[in-house]
Amino acid sequence: MLKSWPRLRQAAHATCQVFCWHIGKAEEIQQAVEALSANLVLVNHELSPSQTRNLSALCGCRVVDRTGLILDIFAQRAEAMKEIAS
């Protein structure tokens, strides 16, 4: 079941290479994930593979950026079309 949780925002100029945010914001995301028992974090920003991996390791769940979400949607639609064609 999908549940929505509050958006967490960070000033654009306050970023770091490891998480895309400073460690304080990354820890805030981790706390929200734990409090909500979330199994997915959607990021409305493009993350590098290492940033995705680092945030996923910190939060203990899957992290998907904007591009990853689009690719997942296309993959699901392709699978559905393949099943229909079979």
In words, what does this structure look like?
The structure is a single chain. The chain is mainly α. The protein contains three helices and two strands. The protein has a two-stranded parallel ribbon.
Characterize the overall form: elongated
Order of helices and strands: HEHEH
What is the count of DSSP helices, taking H or I runs of 4+ residues?
A: 3
Find the count of extended strands (DSSP E, 2+ residues).
Answer: 2
The helix content, as a percent range, equals 40-55%
Distance N to C terminus: 29 Å
Proportion of β residues? 5-15%
Major sheet: arrangement of strands: 1-2
Radius of gyration: 15 Å
Chain-averaged pLDDT: 83
Low-confidence stretches: none
Major sheet: size, sense and barrel closure?
A: 2 strands, parallel
Structural class: mainly alpha
Compact description:
By secondary structure, this protein is mainly α. Helices cover 52% and strands 9% of the residues. The chain has a two-stranded parallel sheet.
